[in-house]
Amino acid sequence: MMLVLAGAILLLFGVNLLLGSVRIPAGEVLAILFGGTGTTDTWVIHSNIVWNSRVPQALTATVAGAGLAVSGLQMQTVFRNPLAGPSVLGISSGASLGVAFVVLLSGSLGGVALSRLGYMGDVAMSVAAIVGSLAVMALIVYVSQRVRGNVTLLIIGVMIGYLATAIIGVLKFFSAEEDIRAYVIWGLGSFSRVSGDQMVLFVVLMAVLLPLSMLLVKTMNLLLLGDGYARNLGLNIRRARLWVITSSGILVAIVTAYCGPVMFIGLAVPHLCRALFRTSDHRILMPGTLLCGAALALVCNLIARMPGFEGALPVNSVTALVGAPVVASVLFRKRKDETSE
Questions:
Q1: ∠ Cα 291 294 299 (to 5°)
Q2: What are the pLDDT digits (tens) for 245-294?
Q3: Residue of 214, 206, 329, 210 lying closest to 268 (CA atoms)
Q4: Alpha carbons 292 and 160: distance in angstroms, whole number
Q5: What is the rounded CA–CA span in Å between residue 67 and residue 86?
Q6: Which pLDDT does position 287 carry in this prediction?
Q7: Which of 53, 83, 125, 337 has the smallest number of Cβ neighbours within 10 A?
Q8: Alpha carbon of 204 to those of 63, 82, 198, 209, 271: distances in Å?
Q9: CB-side exposure of 198: number of CA atoms within 13 Å?
């Protein structure tokens, strides 16, 4: 099954390079990728589209989907809650609040929002999202050291999310219409806003963080046994929970900073993988979830910019359309299996 998922990722990656609003023949795409040269205006345009648009989008979707899926699996394991996802602790809301300060507050106080400053504005938004999400994560880690129950920590995370949403609402009320529009567009999520040096840095960061998250496989398997059994086996529950939450939070922070708050992938993919592999062993689920998340994100990116559309649909609209039926079908199938036993 792992080989099938890896093959599906390669196939979907290739299809993402082939299809789009501009039709480019497959032979020409291959020639562009493998260093072919051409002097015609059409060749130059097609080469720019492939290298500056489609390749960055496909790479961004691949690593973002993998990161969100792994983060969702970690959250569902540590909280033992099938509805837990990457945004459950308010980390995505923290990123949104950071961007709101850059886009909305700077426009209200300085007259010109930082988001209008081109490349510098994009960098400022990314930095603000990382700072906001990491600040919330630091607060969650601090609280987790003093709270025993997972449910209490979960409720605190939800409350932080509501608080961030309330502050964002106040900032919107006092902001200009153009700044509100820029913030709303960011909030819809997109794999297309990452390019150039930003894309390289994003891929490198995720290439480091994802393998590191795999080191928590044994810890997550022990957490599945329950606190009592895990403690008897020598696991420090508080420290283990801290490491898993930190790993998940950093993955969400980086993805949200570069792509916006992309929903449903982190919630849907772990359920899909459990149904595919029929196991709770994280030695299988972690790599399976990583591959499945990358594949699903590539599918969503493909749908978002299907041939015939000018521009691209919001990624969150597509992920919800794809993810909600997946979660519903998996849960219904699980309920059916339980009643038949």
A1: 125
A2: 889 888 988 898 888 888 889 888 998 898 889 888 999 999 999 999 99
A3: 329
A4: 30
A5: 10
A6: 94
A7: 337
A8: 10, 30, 10, 9, 27
A9: 23
**Minimal CA–CA distance to 314: which of 191, 134, 210?**
191
Give the CB-side neighbour count of residue 111, counting CA atoms within 13 A: 0
Q: Cα(185)–Cα(180) distance, rounded to whole angstroms?
A: 9
**CA 341 to CA 335: how far, in whole Å?**
10
The 10 Å Cβ neighbour count of residue 201 is: 14
The reply to whether the predicted model has a pTM over 0.85 is yes
Query: Measuring CA to CA, which residue among 91, 81, 135, 64 is closest to residue 249?
Result: 91
Separation CA 289–CA 287 (nearest Å): 5
Chain mean pLDDT for the chain: 83
Length of the chain (residues) = 341
Six-digit token string for 2: 């792992």
Rounded Cα distance, 68 and 197, in Å: 22
Residue entry with tokens 């809650």 = 81
Q: Choose between 196 and 220: higher pLDDT.
A: 220
- Write out 159-192 in H/E/C secondary structure: HHHHHHHHHHHHHHHCCCHHHHHHHHHHHCCCCC
Token pair 């400022």: residue:
124
From the centroid of its chain, how far is CA 190?
10
Sorted by sequence, the CB contacts under 8 Å of residue 140 that are 6+ apart come out as 89, 90, 91, 153, 156, 157, 160, 245, 249
pLDDT at 41 over 80: no
- Other CB atoms within 10 A of residue 75 CB: 28
Closest by Cα among 185, 56, 61 to 116: 185
Residue type, 267: L
Dihedral in degrees, nearest 10, Cα atoms 78, 84, 85, 87: -100
Burial degree of 191 (CB within 10 A; 0-12, 13-18, 19+): buried
Distance CA 260, CA 153 (A): 24
Residue pair 15/302 in contact (Cβ under 8 Å)? The answer is yes
Q: Return d(Cα 314, Cα 189) in angstroms, integer.
A: 6
Tally the C-alpha atoms within 13 A of residue 294's C-alpha that lie toward its C-beta: 26
